Amino acid sequence: MLNFKKIEINDIEKYNEYMKNSDELSCENAFVNLLVWQPLYNNMMAEKDGILFIKSGVKGDESFRLPYGADIEKGVALIEEYLGEKPVFWTQEGKNLERFKAKMGENFEFFENRDAFDYIYFREKLATLSGKKYHSKRNHISAFSKKFDWHYEYVNESNIAAVRECAKEWYSENAGRMNKTMLCEQEGINVMLSNMQRLGIRGGAVFVEGKVVAFCLGSPINNNCFDTHIEKALSDYSEAYAVINREFAANELADYMYINREDDLGLEGLRRAKLSYKPEILLKKYECVKVK
Across residues 27-50, what is the average pLDDT? Predict the structure, then answer.
């Protein structure tokens, strides 16, 4: 029987052993996301016979990731034994899903969830913004540069306090729409900034007159793809979103091919913004329901 436990920071080494050489690109495969969203989604993990299991939700309303390891059929059987009924799996397109379909796909129905698709970009394109399709982005950066004397820094011990202050101000600006999700995100920023080395966090910040007005934080999904978890800019410096996006890709992520900028939650404005950066991949997500 599987023994699930709450995902904690000390699980990162074990988890990353399964993920580091995988070709999976989903933001949900980033350990940091499982960790910081654990309080909201009750993310838990188990390991047995060289297979990794991840589940979310509470008893009676649980969903499972497709198991990772050498024997996906055995992994599914162990989940069915644990659950005592037909499981619902949540997964993304990729090699693990193809293995699952080849071995067991005829027993499942697959339902796309467009609101959960990840936006994945070539790092080099975000770093250079060259060509006609990025003309508007370069205009935003030019406008910001005309208004402000700014500079970029990577996040480190010398400026973490200034980044925290920017985060505090951003959430204060948005206090009127605070909810459980935003509160969890806010605490997640504290977790990331307090454990940067342990979690493999990289960050960037845009300064104007000694003040951080925009910042971003992210971590690796695997050896080839980096996930940007957090990107914030204060309301009086809205063009800084384009600045921090470019500077972070150019200065911190040269050792990655892809940048995952996560999903759009079905929000129209966020979808337009993420499409405007011309993703190379819209990574599909599926709910997999066993039918026989």
Answer: 95
